[in-house]
Amino acid sequence: MEFTLLRGNQELADAYNNHELSYTMNGGSPDLREEIAKLYGPNINAENILVFPGAQVALQTAAIALTNGHTHSIVFNPAYQSTQEAPVHAGSQVTKIALKAVNNWQIDPRGIRENTRYLVINEPHNPAGTLMSPVLQMQLKTLAEKHGIYILSDEVYRFLEHDESDRLPAMADLYQKGISAVTISKPWGGCGITIGWLAFRDLSI
Ligand SMILES: Cc1ncc(COP(=O)(O)O)c(C=O)c1O
């Protein structure tokens, strides 16, 4: 069946009509994963991308994969609810650290325990709209590296910085145990498409 709404843009119509629309591989169709991987540096290829029905599902899945009742996670508050609650739903021990307006909502990672395995950040931050500095991002990476902690970085507002020069590197590019969570919903304005993904280097996850 031809999809007539795409008439007028032959290239797009051909791409749609020739695209396999049966069940896709687990992890998303290879052409989409290849396209997404182009947003990242040389360490991220199609195999390092997993596609989900939106970032919210990606956040839940990452927490279930990386945490359990024996491990400890650190999250920040206020935050988009799923970033805080996904490790709770996964059964992890969770420390919620309060972000404060007097500190311009900047994170101050503390409370690391021997069994801390997971730390969740969201930059640019929902709801504050703030962004951490590259220096703080590097400090966080160094700290996480020292303690063997995975950093889940919710980057759904990345590419929407007021000033492009403030854009932080994707955590998946920066850190071996970094995971970037992204969605078509925000910079591409495609919430109805319900496509999100995780980008990560550590394929042992
Ligand atoms: C910070 C943050 N993460 C994740 C999501 C969820 O994205 P999606 O619409 O792809 O499930 C949102 C949606 O508002 C969000 O604000």
From TrEMBL:
Ranges in a coiled coil: none
| Residue span, Aminotransferase class I/classII large domain | 19-200
Return the InterPro entries for the record: Aminotransferase_I/II_large, PyrdxlP-dep_Trfase, PyrdxlP-dep_Trfase_major, PyrdxlP-dep_Trfase_small
- Return one GO MF term: pyridoxal phosphate binding
Q: Name one Pfam family in it.
A: Aminotran_1_2
Q: What is this protein called?
A: Aminotransferase class I/classII large domain-containing protein
